[in-house]
């Protein structure tokens, strides 16, 4: 967001007399008169009158002339405090936080209602409590009995978690200041908290911001790690002021398709760890189960032998993940054909389509194109280009791809297939899961090692891949695998046909 202060109406640093200004509750920008839309973040109806006396608006002469206290400056090397991280014992959660909760840090966990945030955090607090740490769970949404019921269902009722249903930040801070400092405090959710210091109702941005501030102060002061649960609005933003995201040390997002059991925990921001790692869970009748080998999960419901599906050998963070890409290319009835994509970057799809048209003679302008990443995973790597192209062409010519092949490689605008990082990790994972061959960039061959005996089919340009797939599609093409019989039997992408008929 633009906080640069380009707007002329924005207050910058000094305002002569008035001590009241209108502050955007979303981004914090201040104005000297009310307006409907915040110029800074573009949100509507977020300006509220605030008394900024003493903040920035007081004339310098009135401010205290106190001489500043001197403090010691330190060097970068030096003794750091003991064990700054506290692993939760849930490997997938620790992977995303970067090895555990950092002392004195505050983490925001966002996600749709019902996705499993409370379940995840009940499990995490119970694990810590069982390991002998003081873990506190404050629920502002559910009664103690409801939280107990969930714990019972999860088989965690015996864990010595300290539980309360409270919403007053002052009460919470006073209570937790007594006794040993808790190692982990879960606040479920930040939107239900309120503090006496501001007037507005609970759930308003001012309250959320002030409550978060008070809790963050408590965490920094005591060294307790705090997890704030945050609701997510329809457009995927964590509700409440954007500033809460800026205030906390890490923002994790818990995602998943409602109809599916997979849940993915992703770091959107992390001051103490990586942001590209994902944690994969499965929602079961007994709570969230950690999935240590996500490839198996993502490939478990594969549509073997259907045209339009290709397995992409990807990397998520430090871990190889195999996932199925599903494409449907169907004649359009619309003037402007549809391009819909779930789980991948729409502009990359447009690029791959353009390269197929321009360099490979694949005419797609008369077709609707749908691309879906199975299992609710969201791919960010350009390495998925080759798998997407293979799936698209396979659907167009109605020719299933070999079921034992994985694909990866970045496609350049010239139609060349470029090498991607971590070739051998991708190949190893594919071999481990029983794949027999890999279609990969030509120049990647040099760095291949320990590929587990995969047959490698290097591709220099997209044209040769298209020709190969098209040949499989022709009635008397050079078919070579014995799997083809099975493939032909269900040559209709049933999944898509149901959805789009
Ligand atoms: P919950 O953790 O309450 O979601 P959130 O806090 O994100 O709103 O999870 C609610 C859903 O999870 C609910 O639809 C039921 C399901 N669930 C299970 O399938 N198994 C379980 O063991 C538990 C506790 C919940
Ligand atoms: Mg909840």
Q: What can you see in these coordinates?
A:
The chain has 501 residues and is an alpha/beta fold. The chain folds into 3 domains: 20-57; 86-292, P-loop containing nucleotide triphosphate hydrolases (Rossmann fold, 3-Layer(aba) Sandwich), CATH 3.40.50; 297-499, Ribosomal Protein S5, domain 2, CATH 3.30.230.10. 26% of the residues lie in helices and 23% in strands. It has helices at residues 91-97, 117-130, 144-153, 169-177, 205-222, 242-247, 294-298, 346-360, 385-396, 423-432, 462-473, 484-489, 494-500, and strands spanning 20-24, 30-31, 47-51, 85-86, 101-102, 106-111, 135-139, 162-164, 184-188, 225-231, 250-255, 262-270, 278-284, 287-290, 309-316, 319-331, 339-342, 367-373, 405-407, 410-411, 417-418, 437-441, 455-459. A 9-stranded mixed beta sheet has the order 8-7-9-10-6-11-12-13-14. It has a 7-stranded mixed beta sheet with strand order 17-18-16-15-19-22-23. The longest helix is centred in the middle third of the chain and has 18 residues, at 205-222. The protein starts with 19 loop residues before the first strand and ends with a helix. The structure holds thymidine-5'-diphosphate (TYD) and magnesium ion. Magnesium ion is lined by residues 117-118, 141, 188.
């Amino acid at each position: 967001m633009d906080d640069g202060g380009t707007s002329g109406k924005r207050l910058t640093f000094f305002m002569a007399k008035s001590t009241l200004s209108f502050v955007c509750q979303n981004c914090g920008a201040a104005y000297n008169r009310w307006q409907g839309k915040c110029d800074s973040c573009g949100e509507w109806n977020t300006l509220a009158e605030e008394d900024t006396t003493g903040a920035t608006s007081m004339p310098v002469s009135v401010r205290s002339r106190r001489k500043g206290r001197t403090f010691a400056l330190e060097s970068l090397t030096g003794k750091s405090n003991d064990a700054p991280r506290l692993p939760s014992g849930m490997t997938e959660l620790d992977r995303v936080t970067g090895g555990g909760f950092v002392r004195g840090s505050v983490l925001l966990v966002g996600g749709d209602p019902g996705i499993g945030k409370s379940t995840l955090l009940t499990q995490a607090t119970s694990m810590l409590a069982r390991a002998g740490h003081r873990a506190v769970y404050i629920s502002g949404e559910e009664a103690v009995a409801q939280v107990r019921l969930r714990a019972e269902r999860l088989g965690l009722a015996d864990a010595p978690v300290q539980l309360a249903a409270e919403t007053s930040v002052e009460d919470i801070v006073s209570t937790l200041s007594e006794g040993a400092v808790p190692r982990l405090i879960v606040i479920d959710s930040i939107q239900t908290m309120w503090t006496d210091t501001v007037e507005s109702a609970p759930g308003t941005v001012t309250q959320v911001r002030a409550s978060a501030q008070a809790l963050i102060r408590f965490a920094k002061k005591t060294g307790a790690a705090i997890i704030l649960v945050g609701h997510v609005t329809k457009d995927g933003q964590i509700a409440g002021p954007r500033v809460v995201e800026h205030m906390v040390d890490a923002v994790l997002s818990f995602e998943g398709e409602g109809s599916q059991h997979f849940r993915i925990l992703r770091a959107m921001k992390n001051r103490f760890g990586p942001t590209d790692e994902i944690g994969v869970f499965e929602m079961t009748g007994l709570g969230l189960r950690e999935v240590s080998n996500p490839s198996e999960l993502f490939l478990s419901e594969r549509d073997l032998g259907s045209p339009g599906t290709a397995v992409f050998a990807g990397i998520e963070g430090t871990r190889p993940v195999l996932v199925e890409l599903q494409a449907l290319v169907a004649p359009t009835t619309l003037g402007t054909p549809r391009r819909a994509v779930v789980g991948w970057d729409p502009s990359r799809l447009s690029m791959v389509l353009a390269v197929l048209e321009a360099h490979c003679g694949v005419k797609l302008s008369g077709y609707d194109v749908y691309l879906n990443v199975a299992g609710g995973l969201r791919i960010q790597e350009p390495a998925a280009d080759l798998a997407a192209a293979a799936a698209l062409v396979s659907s167009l010519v109605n020719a299933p791809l070999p079921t034992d092949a994985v694909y990866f490689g970045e496609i350049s605008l010239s139609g060349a297939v470029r090498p991607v990082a971590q070739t051998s990790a991708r190949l190893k994972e594919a071999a481990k899961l029983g794949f027999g061959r890999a279609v990969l960039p030509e120049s990647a061959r040099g760095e291949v090692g320990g590929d587990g005996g995969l047959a490698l089919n290097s591709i220099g340009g997209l044209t040769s891949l298209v020709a190969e797939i098209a040949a499989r599609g022709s009635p008397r093409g050079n078919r070579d695998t014995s799997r083809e019989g099975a493939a032909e039997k269900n040559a209709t992408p049933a999944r898509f046909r149901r959805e789009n008929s």
